Amino acid sequence: MTVLDFEAVLAPDVVVNGTAAVQGSNYAYITLIDVTADEAGVFALWLRDRFTPAQHAVWFASSLAMANGEDAPTALAVDGDVAEVTRQLHEHLTAIDEQPPPQ
């Protein structure tokens, strides 16, 4: 598996660190380290609009969801600005946080 650790400056006040791993010719995953939902939203919008070949190709999961046993990613909105993408991430975290812990 090909892996790349990175730091990206996406805006003057948004710097993200992460790891990108390529599992096959058509699939890769990116793990962001210590980011807020707002910072992740800026990154996700950049990834969706400027990097991926199709807007529907970006999916996300959170460490909170995975800790609660949710291993299926959620599709990122295919349109909308950073406020919409950030709202989606916040809603995801709120919904996961309100679930009872796994048994």
In short:
With 103 residues, the chain is α+β, with helices and mostly antiparallel strands. It is built from 3 helices and 5 strands.
Task: Report on this structure.
By secondary structure, the protein is of the alpha+beta class. The protein is 35% helix and 31% strand. It contains three helices and five strands, in the order βββαβαβα. The chain has helices at residues 37-51, 63-67, 82-97, and strands at residues 2-11, 14-24, 27-33, 59-60, 74-75. The strands form two sheets. A three-stranded antiparallel β-sheet has the order 1-2-3. The longest helix has 16 residues, at 82-97. It starts with a strand and ends in a 6-residue tail after the last helix.
What is this structure's SSE topology?
Blueprint: E1 2-11, E2 14-24, E3 27-33, H1 37-51, E4 59-60, H2 63-67, E5 74-75, H3 82-97
Antiparallel strand pairs: 1-2, 2-3, 4-5
Helix pairs in contact: 1-3
Low-confidence spans: pLDDT under 50, at least 5 residues? none
Going by helix content, strand content and strand pairing, the class is alpha+beta
Mean pLDDT: 88
Beta-strand level of the residues, as a percent range?
A: 25-35%
What tags apply to this protein structure?
35% helix; alpha+beta; 103 residues
